Amino acid sequence: MEEQVERDSMDFDVVIVGAGPSGLSAAARLMQQANEAGQELTVCVVEKGSEVGAHILSGAVFEPRALAELFPDWEERGAPLTTPATRDEVYLLKDAEKGQKLPNALVPPSMHNTGGDMTRYVISAGNLCRWLAEQAESLGVEIFPGFAAQEVIQDEDGTVRGILIGDMGVGADGQPKDGHMPGMELRAKYTLFAEGARGHLGKRLIERFELDAGKDPQHYGIGLKELWDIPAEQHEPGLVLHGSGWPLDRHTHGGWFLYHAENQQVVVGLIMDLSYQNPWLSPFDEFQRMKHHPVLAKHLEGGKRVAYGARAIAKGGLNCLPKMTFPGGLLIGCDAGTLNFAKIKGLHTAMKSGLVAAESVFEAIASGDEGGQELTAFTEKWEASWAYAELKASASFGPAIHKYGTFLGGAYNFTDQLLGGRLPSLHDTTPDHAALKPAEECEKIDYPKPDGKLSFDKPSSVFLSNTNHEEDQPCHLKLTDPELPIRDNLPRYAEPAQRYCPVGVYEVIEDDAGNPKFQINFQNCVHCKTCDIKDPAQNITWVAPEGGGGPNYPNM
Predict the structure, then answer these.
(1) Where are the beta strands (DSSP E) in 18-112?
(2) Under 8 Å CB-to-CB from 222, ≥6 apart: which residues?
(3) Which CATH number does the domain housing residue 147 bear?
(4) How many domains does the chain have?
């Protein structure tokens, strides 16, 4: 019989998993309402990163609509929005040398970042979250960074009652080490899951409660991003560039961004759909060679790369959005998939989902609710919100790109936006992991060697992500069938994990007898979740490692 571990327990009114934009917005709004009503309320946020913001990565051009609802005086409070977007450029890269700048009249309205009735800002999402955490704590929220939520606490009937924090000080053999600390139970009337895209607890909840019944499968992209210091004469704060085309082929969809931020810095990145077909493709290497295109290189030459990171994004939109309520809790933000990919923006919609969640939860608790109910009022409020309206207006955006390709799909979306969403609704029902073709049917890609000036290798990139995990701990990348990578994936798909992972976690090496062996370098993991999404056999499950592990992004 398994030995029962004695665990401490703490009770709260609300526990929130993840100190990202949605989780922190929900926490702050909950306490605002409690303070306004003079009601005692206990709210706890747990964050697996070593500090708030350590695992946050986004472009980002930010719409402050939800922020203004939460803190109308955000400017006086010193929110880190200091660089207004001043100029937009959109390009179609035809090949490695040629690029066509698109006239504004041909750019879909959702892609415009200047003009209109709202100023948008080039920001660091990590720094926004650090600031939001300060505001939340000043309102009375308790935030626990460095603690990873490992399990959902549920009653026999499935009702969610809180979370279990992962143990600290467990060795690779699964046995307690010196200084072992059993994980604590954090129990709550309501638990909000705000883990970001492909949250490992959110994934289980979606399956447990069949929250995706009747929905298209969620679609994802991998976003790779670098932060550069550039010469002053090349810097134009607020310049926003987007583009598509080369180096991606017609079966591979995605686009790049390059934003001039504050402090003589530029952020550059590639977002690539994980519905790509060619198993020889490497998103990391596509990103590295992309920066050599003259349209991008002129902004980076003479500069110095100072940070690197990668993260999956949930980009399926409304057609893939699961039911967000279940007994005892809610899925919010990118854990559900609230990003509006037609705008390449998700911070504002994630924050709005957090605000709606906070209002629904507080309303229930203030009425005497002792928890464990399904908050159907949330669904009504969410579907009446401007964020939901945004997602509804762009429901066919991703399916159009997947069905017709970047150019024709873009034309469909441009027309649909001009007509106010009156074109027929489109759907994409093929999961991303099922899109891969056998390696023998695809062209092998010979990527150029990095030059160390504009393009770089994976080891130096991992170094810039400040990634660290305690080496003597159980591997957090679980294989359902340990033999499958070599037995099935290697002969059929040339084991694509070697290439889709942006930090070299997975390798095929030779053992002492000269036979291929699948090796997992989990210490490199930046928690992007790509492996959990793209493995063709769905054989890899990402779970949270010991709290505090992973990347430590400075201001991504």
Answers:
(1) 43-47, 61-62, 87-93, 99-101
(2) 271, 272, 274, 283, 310, 311, 312, 313, 500, 502, 528, 530
(3) 3.50.50.60
(4) 2
In a domain, 256, yes or no: no
Whether this model's pTM surpasses 0.85: yes
The domain boundary residue, chosen from 342, 374, 393 = 393
358: tokens are 């906070």
Tokens matching residue 229:
């210091």
Contact 254, 271 (CB under 8 A): yes
| CA–CA distance, 469 with 251 (Å, rounded to integer) | 36
Q: Does residue 247 have a cis bond before it (omega within 30 degrees)?
A: yes
Tell me how far apart the alpha carbons of residues 155 and 246 are, in angstroms, rounded to a whole number. 52
Judgement on whether residues 389 and 405 belong to the same structural domain of the protein? no
Distance, in Å, from the CA atom of 188 to the CA atom of 10, rounded to the nearest integer, reads: 9
Q: What is the pLDDT of residues 346-359, one digit of tens each?
A: 999 999 999 999 99
Range of the domain at 404: 397-430
**What's the CA gap between 423 and 414, in Å, rounded?**
11
Render pLDDT for 219-269 as a digit per residue (tens, 0 to 9): 999 999 999 999 999 999 999 999 999 999 988 999 999 999 999 999 999
Distances (CA, A) of 316 to 20, 160, 381: 20, 26, 21
Sheet holding 265-273, edge to edge: 99-101, 87-93, 239-245, 254-260, 265-273, 220-229, 304-314
405 is a domain residue? yes
